[in-house]
Amino acid sequence: MSRSATRSSTPRLRKPGPRGLSGRGLGKASYVEAPPEWRGTSVQVCGLFPWIVGASTPTIGVPIGRHMLSGSAVCFDPINWFQRAKVLLNPSMFVLGLPGLGKSTLVRRQVLGLAASGVTPLVLGDLKPDYAELVRALGGQVVRLGRGAGSLNVLDPGAMGSVAKTLSGAMADELREQAMGRRLNMTTALVTLVRRQPVTDHEESVLSAALRVLDERSAGVPVLSDLVQVLEDAPDAVRQVTLDRGSIERYRESVDPLARSLIGLIDGPLGTTFARPTSVPVDVDSTSVCVDISNISSTDTRLQAAVLLACWNEGFGAVEAAQALADAGRAPQRRFFIVMDELWRVVRSGEGMVDNIDALTRLNRQKGVGTAMITHSMADLRALRNQEDREKAEGFVERSGALVVGGLPPAEMEHLNTIVPFFARERREVTHWATPPGWDANTAPPGLGNFLIKVGGRAGIPVNVQLTATEQMADIHNTNRAWEQQQ
Fold first, then answer.
1. 168: Cβ contacts below 8 Å, ≥ 6 apart
2. Residue 34: exposed, middle, or buried by beta-carbon count in 10 A (0-12, 13-18, 19+)?
3. What is the pLDDT of residue 203?
4. Backbone angles phi, psi at 286, to 5 degrees
5. CA atoms of 266 and 151, how far apart (whole Å)
6. Average confidence score pLDDT of the chain
7. Under DSSP, is residue 47 helix (H, G, I), strand (E, B) or coil?
8. Which of 59, 94, 379, 465 is at a distance of 20 to 30 A from 281, taking alpha carbons?
9. 326, 163 Cβ separation under 8 angstroms
10. What is the pTM of this model?
């Protein structure tokens, strides 16, 4: 028998492919159903090895939605990613995105989740309002400010002054000095808003000396009219700062411009919002706090900026007071999540306002405070006339632990890419989300609820924020309530 005949009579064995042997009756599967997947911590699923893979995102923090590529749950908030996941260098985030794409919804979800875990959210200035209904649902405190709605005395040391009275020694002195610094910075910022130009270093020294004289004189809590009266009385401590050399005329010439600006705060473009005692102080012992300033007209830009800045000052001061009690062993250590929405209104309100924001909000990461700064686009920061202010404002983005980006136009992404590097695919994705919806009124924008979470040079995490049925029924995420009520 020939070799060729031997080969032909031997049956050939085929190796099955990944879906089995092809052919009639051989059982090839044309469709393979994906196996079920579950997510858990390494402690929970360690016994399933080797049938486990590492997650692309930490399962630590507030659940905000699903990964747009893998469909897995995405958990994210700046506090837990800093403290527990060790992903962020500081517990802060900067949120950018065009209006109407869900920035407030994302932050409200974090407020809700953090409040449930024992963190106290502080929404310091709610213009629309976007957060008031949620804070009420959480049983928190809602404070209303604005023309005829409430007042905020920027000379009131507030919680810092109250806590300083309960302490002694160096800790009490330090807290009093911090309270003095906050009042000085806030008064300087308001004068800057009224003038639309920065306060001089000489005037800042005069204000500092006048505030110390005011503290020595006042038995109660002083107001701005009392500060004006100190300048009018010309005490020696203030005159020494002006270098009047015994001439009352030189003194008047030195302090009169400042006195006029302070009078403008009492009865001027800002109304009486800052001229009276504080109507309702911020209570950080509440489950959550929202300062509702929706009563202020959108055309009243200077008052909006002034009240936002004053709210931030009040809130950060109250947080420092609470942490001072914890450091002294008088209270447990607490964590706070501070929301600073509509950042652009304050940044663009006057030259030098970036420095005031930086001075008010620069808290040490050891203070247990997470922050969220929210604005529409980098154009809000580039619109500043002073190049130095523009660079400092962009520093807010650069120093944030995480950058969260919603839909933005191509020009915005080009500029943002010079501060935080984006991959080409990420830039295309974010600009696609900025595409407007179709002409059909029932069609949602393509980028509604979509965000890219960037941490340093890592690849971004695309996530779609999804609401639970309970959140939808509670109607706490409806920012168009006023329009619907008119229909």
1. none
2. exposed
3. 93
4. -75, 165
5. 12
6. 84
7. helix
8. 94
9. no
10. 0.81
| Helix, strand, or coil (residue 462) | strand
Residue 65 parent element (H or E)? strand 63-67
Helix (H, G, I), strand (E, B) or coil at 440: coil
Q: Which residues of the chain have pLDDT under 70?
A: 1-13, 37-39, 41-42, 48-56, 349-352, 356, 359-367, 440-442, 473-487
Cβ distance 396 to 349 under 8 Å? no
Using the structure block, give the residue that is written with the tokens 């080409």: 424
Structural element, H or E, at residue 4: helix 3-9
pLDDT at res. 446: 85
The rounded distance, in Å, linking the Cα atoms of 324 and 167 is 9
Distance (Å, whole) CA 261 – CA 383: 26
Locate the DSSP E strands across 97-191: 120-126, 141-144
DSSP letter assigned to residue 267? S
- What was the pLDDT predicted at 122? 93
Q: Which domain holds residue 245?
A: 153-277
Total count of domains within the chain:
1
Beta bridge partners of 73: 66
In a domain, 186, yes or no: yes
From start to end of 326-460, where are the E strands?
A: 336-340, 369-375, 402-405, 450-454
How far lies 313's CA from each of 116, 164, 213, 299, 370, in Å? 25, 17, 22, 23, 15
Report the run of H or E that residue 390 belongs to, with start and end: helix 387-399
Residue 364 pLDDT = 46
**Domain-located, residue 328:** no
Of 104, 134, 480, 129, give the one whose Cα is nearest residue 294: 129
406 lies in some domain? no
Residue 475 has a pLDDT of 63
CB 191 within 8 A of CB 265: yes
| Measured distance CA(164)–CA(159) in Å, rounded | 8
Residue 181 domain-assigned (yes or no): yes
C-beta separation of 39 from 48 below 8 A = no
Residues 303 and 270 sit within 8 Å (Cβ to Cβ): yes
* Chain segment 13-66, per-residue pLDDT in tens: 677 777 788 777 777 877 777 777 666 766 777 776 666 665 567 788 999 999
